[in-house]
Amino acid sequence: MGVSRQGRCGRLSLKQPPFWQRLTWMAAIWLASVTALGFVAAMLRWWLTGQVG
């Protein structure tokens, strides 16, 4: 079509981050999800029993 791409800024990098960084992200996501699930479970238990603890 004759459209020049010279003015484009920013490209998608195909490099992957190091293994330790990917592992850290996965651990952080897992920990956040487990924490959120525990919080929801505690709130449901509190709501259903009417007690804290």
> What is the element string, with H for helices and E for strands?
H
* Secondary structure: helix percent: 55-70%
Taking the alpha carbons of the first and last residues, their distance comes to 68 Å
Instruction: Report the strand count.
Output: 0
What's the rounded overall pLDDT mean? 84
What structural category arises from helix and sheet content?
mainly alpha
Low-confidence stretches: none
Note the overall shape: elongated
What is the alpha-carbon Rg in Å?
Answer: 23 Å
> What fraction strand?
under 5%
Major beta sheet, specifics? none
- Put simply, the count of helices is 1
What does this structure look like?
The structure is a single chain. This protein is mainly α and 53 residues long. 58% of the residues lie in helices and 0% in strands. It contains one helix and no strands. The mean pLDDT is 84.
